[in-house]
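subagent[fold] <- orchestrator: predict structure for attached chain, return tokens only, no commentary.
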Amino acid sequence: MWHATLHTACQAVADFGAQALVVPLGVDTFAGDPISGFGLQSADYLQVGQTLASLGLPTVFTFEGGYAVAEVGVNTVNVLQGFHTGK
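subagent[fold] -> orchestrator:
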């Protein structure tokens, strides 16, 4: 479900005609996050990055948080790697 929602959001960005993208990256959507109601797995963050890259826009990521301390780095790197390979 989250992937369909991300695609809908990306389509809205494309329809708007954005020339750049700022992503407030929060990895508190991770299933193991102690305050999250989401269920993303670490591998899902690769897809997030790839989907964002598919927009073909200059992109800046800002870090917004995540509270599963042991996985924050892995999940953040997965987004960035997915973005890099998705170009």
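orchestrator: received. Logging for downstream: The chain has three helices and two strands. The radius of gyration is 13 Å.
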